[in-house]
Amino acid sequence: MGDGFPAGIGGCGLCSETVKGMDPIEARVEAELAELEGALGHRFARPGLLRRALTHRSLANERAISELALESSAEDAQEAGDNERLEFLGDAVLGLVVAEALFLLHPEWQEGELTRVRSQLVSRQHMAEVAAAIDLGKYLLLSHGEDKSGLRRKSTVLSNTMEAVLAALFLDGGLEPVKAVVRRWVMGEAAEELARELRSGAALGNFKSALQEQLQAAHAGTPVYRVKSESGPDHRKRFLVEVRLKSDESLPGKPLARGTGSTKKHAEQDAARRALERLTKAAATTGAPESEEPGAGQEERSAQ
């Protein structure tokens, strides 16, 4: 999307009456914003909030914004301008909702454990992955110049925009729609993975590092990750990743484990976690690394 878009982007989907006579660009924007509402599970009563959450500063006209903010109501002013103020609010709302969810889910955790897991879930890296999972970059409102620069794929822009969208949800519907999005996209699989890591004693948020350190210490080789398959629609992708033990550049490497996830990173972490479990089990019984081969077919079937 570039500049020149209509000021009012509807949040109620496209009906035949709306499409009829609508400018093609405006109709496309309407359709794409309705798609995003579907991924978020929330229909905006004030669609201008969602538009502002998606508006990068490269597109916003500061002079026009200032005039509108002075001349309009407080509600209109919330919907005018770029998304930087919404980022500020979204960051605070995200921290609150994740903290409450962890507090209720894990009564056995102390402050330090809660803080460590929360910091991983609200990190810029994780929020950029959440944004990528719902294809948020597709809906960004950018100037023509920035649109050509690859800004839609920049992790910082994606994470900031995701926070702005959470703020828009909060202003439009309160905490409940934010909690729903956080449960589905921010917590979910990632929170379960972090909880497993916390229990295992692995480096929190990084089974891959733990696996690499263990293999290096044993002089066994280097873990290499490869995507085996992808399934599901764009907004609900599932990845199957295999990790192999490379000891020679000329060889494909010995398969250690396969993992699944909604992003490549989550699938790689799941594969590394499974590999660590197998290596630990093998070391305890035979003293030698165990191949992934016997269970590979079963894991691949369960991922589909």
Protein traits:
single chain, Ribonuclease iii, N-terminal Endonuclease Domain, Chain A, globular, disordered C terminus
Task: Walk me through the structure.
- The protein has helices spanning 16-19, 24-40, 47-54, 62-71, 74-79, 84-105, 111-121, 124-133, 144-147, 155-173, 175-200, 207-217, 264-285, 293-303, and strands at 222-231, 238-246, 254-261.
- With 304 residues, the protein is mainly alpha-helical.
- It has two domains: 16-199, Ribonuclease III domain (Ribonuclease iii, N-terminal Endonuclease Domain, Chain A, Orthogonal Bundle); 207-303, 2-Layer Sandwich (Double Stranded RNA Binding Domain), CATH 3.30.160.
- Strands 1-2-3 form a three-stranded antiparallel beta sheet, with helices on both faces.
- Strand 1 (222-231) and strand 2 (238-246) form a beta hairpin.
- Helix 8 (124-133) crosses helix 10.
- The protein is globular, with a radius of gyration of 23 Å.
- The two termini are 34 Å apart.
- Mean pLDDT is 79; it is low at 1-19, 61-73 and 288-304.
CATH architecture of the largest domain: Orthogonal Bundle
What fraction of residues sit in β-strands? 5-15%
- The CATH homologous superfamily of the largest domain is called Ribonuclease III domain
Q: Quick check: average pLDDT?
A: 79
